[in-house]
Every structure is written in structure tokens, then in C-alpha cells.
Design goal:
Immunoglobulin-like, 2 domains, single chain, 6-stranded antiparallel sheet, about 10% helix, globular
Length: about 350
């Protein structure tokens, strides 16, 4: 980011300089303008976006190797960070590995509350036969106050696709923060000496979302509704960015899409969903459903007859999702991977 004497003439110059300085100080950073931190939003599209491996270990010595970092093949969309554990064929004991991944530091502009979101996946591979499971814990590190909070943790004991998780957080405007994810992967069955492989725990769309204007201004659509009765338009928009669950499934003339209502919304969500060939050209019917807070629902859309030949060969499809929760409203456009059954 770019950081930026005749008496009457001198006074005028000083006043002008002071005015310009005040305007520059008032300008928000890129992260503050979007209300999403770190500034790239944790999409991992094309790279690790400053996230780094800070620790890695395994109790099984040379028979167990551990790594962590950017994964360009997996994600929603492709691109994620991963904690990987590889076990050699001749392992004859249980294993436990630990990996910690950490974001670049960022300074929040406010307000003092928001939502931490991530999409996580567990791929045990052939190590599923060793009853492998993974646990992760997310730590929000306040560099300025030298404090930490752990808003989100989970244990996953079976293979899982990318699933979104949300947690409410409180921050101090002007403080510097970092997000850390500690991953522990273990087996409960000893190796037989005949089985090896790699297990991966992956994370995508890892971001802290705040209302950049502290409730002032407008969200997507009309004015910035909300406030004491729920989220503002801007806060709702940040919270539901990743609430469509990939992939979408095409079954003949029907398109099945999963949508969730994040618990952080604080209300049930009224979701209007439609598939699009492009931003203003419909590919499917429009459906309206109600989803309870913290729940996920499958929405069935009917592909329009004129769009069927264009939808059939596509690998991805654009969706328009409008969410109403309490007095707030937000609209999100997102492309999802398309599979067929």
C-alpha cells in the first residue's frame, strides 16, 4: 500500500498541508475497505497469500514425514493450504503429527466484532485403514495486546469434503492480528508394515470478516439495514460469502445445490438461488427456501429447456444467491464446480 513560508501565503500552505494529511490518514487500507482480513481473503487462488508453515513434527521419526503449505489442486475453488502427514510402508506403530500454519499479520480498522470463516477438508487416503483422524484449532493472535483467543476447533474422524465453519470473534480496531491453525493428525491402529500413504487436512477461504464502516453506509442492495436487531447489510454480506457448498450436482434436468445459513447470522436465512449462464442470463429456475441458523439445506433448481445444452458440458456454473436475515439483505455471485450423476 502507498503511504503517504509572506504570512498569508505561508498560512495557506500550512493549512492545505494539514488538510491533505488528515485526508490521507482517513483513507482505509485495502483490507479495511473490504472488511476482510487478511486483505486477499484467504482464497489461496494462485498462491499461499503470505501464509507460512511455522512448525511441523511427528512422533514416528524417519518413518513419518510432515509438511505444510500451498496446495494448488484442491480447494473451493482450487487453491488451499494443507497439513500433510506421510507414513512409510514399514511403520509398525501408531503415529501423531503436528503442523501449524499461520497467516501474515494484518491490522483491523473496525468495528470490534465479526466472523471468522474457513472451509476445511480431511483426506485420509490409504491411512484410513489406520483409523486416522485430524483435529484443528484456530487461534486469533492479537499482536498489539499480546493476547490470544481460540474461536474455532474441531475433530474429524472420517473423510470429508470441504465444509464451511464459522465462529464469532471480537477484535480491537487498530490492533495487529494474525490467524494460526494448529493441526494434529493421529492414528488409533498401529501400522502393519505393509501400509503407507499420505493424509491431508486442507483449509480454504480462511478470513476474518468485519463491517468496514462499523454499521454505516450500504451493503449489496439498499441502505445498511440491521443494527441492534441483527447484522447490517455489510456484515451479512461478509458472513455469507462462502455459504454455497461446492460442488453442485446435475441430475438430468435438475441441479442440486447445498446452501447453509451461518450460525453467526443470528437469524434464519431466507435464501433465493438461481443458476446463471452469465451474470444476467438465467440457466435455471429461481427457488426461495428458508434455512435455520447453523443449518445446511439442499436446494433443487430446474434447468431451463433453452439452457440445457449449454449447461451440460460445463465444468463450473455461476450462481446468484440473495440472503435475507432479519432486517439485513445481501447478494453474492459465486461459481461452483459442476458434477454429474
Amino acid at each position: 500500500m502507498t503511504r503517504f513560508t509572506g504570512t498569508h501565503i505561508r498560512r495557506g500552505a500550512v493549512a492545505a498541508t494539514a488538510t491533505i494529511a488528515m485526508l490521507l490518514l482517513a483513507m482505509p487500507s485495502a483490507g479495511a475497505a473490504s472488511g476482510v482480513y487478511p486483505a486477499e481473503g484467504g482464497t489461496f487462488s494462485g498462491g499461499a497469500q503470505g501464509w507460512q508453515l511455522t512448525s511441523a513434527s511427528c512422533n514416528a521419526g524417519p518413518l513419518c514425514t510432515v509438511s505444510g503449505g500451498y496446495d494448488d489442486s484442491n480447494g473451493d475453488p482450487p487453491g488451499s493450504i494443507a497439513a500433510n502427514t506421510t507414513v512409510a510402508l514399514n511403520l509398525v506403530t501408531v503415529f501423531k503429527s503436528n503442523v501449524t500454519l499461520q497467516s501474515p499479520d494484518f491490522t483491523v480498522a473496525g468495528p470490534d466484532s465479526g466472523t471468522l470463516h474457513l472451509d476445511r477438508q480431511f483426506a485420509p487416503g490409504s491411512l484410513v485403514d489406520l483409523a486416522a483422524e485430524t483435529s484443528y484449532a484456530v487461534t486469533l493472535i492479537d499482536r498489539t495486546a499480546e493476547r490470544q483467543s481460540k474461536p474455532l476447533s474441531e475433530t474429524i474422524d472420517s473423510a470429508s469434503g470441504f465444509v464451511g465453519k464459522d465462529a464469532a470473534v471480537t477484535v480491537v480496531p487498530g490492533h495487529a492480528y494474525a490467524i494460526s491453525i494448529a493441526v494434529e493428525t493421529t492414528s488409533s491402529l498401529a501400522g502393519t508394515g505393509l501400509l503407507g500413504g499420505t493424509t491431508s487436512t486442507r483449509f480454504d477461504n480462511v478470513a476474518l470478516s468485519l463491517d468496514a464502516n462499523g454499521g454505516a453506509g450500504g451493503g449489496t442492495g439498499g441502505g445498511d439495514r440491521g443494527g441492534k436487531d441483527g447484522l447490517s447489510d455489510r456484515q451479512l454480506l461478509a458472513t455469507v460469502q462462502g455459504s454455497l457448498v461446492a460442488p453442485a450436482t446435475l441430475k438430468g434436468k435438475r441441479l442440486l445445490v447445498k446452501a447453509r445459513c451461518p450460525a453467526a447470522v443470528g437469524h434464519a436465512c431466507r435464501v433465493t438461488l438461481q443458476g446463471l449462464l452469465k451474470k444476467h442470463r438465467a440457466a435455471t429456475s429461481r427457488r426461495v427456501v428458508k434455512i435455520a441458523g447453523g443449518k445446511t439445506k439442499q436446494i433443487v433448481l430446474k434447468v431451463k429447456p433453452r439452457a440445457q445444452k449449454k449447461v451440460a458440458p460445463r465444468k463450473r456454473l455461476l450462481f446468484k444467491q440473495t440472503v435475507k436475515a432479519g432486517p439485513a439483505k445481501a447478494t453474492v455471485y459465486r461459481r461452483l464446480k459442476l458434477i454429474r450423476r
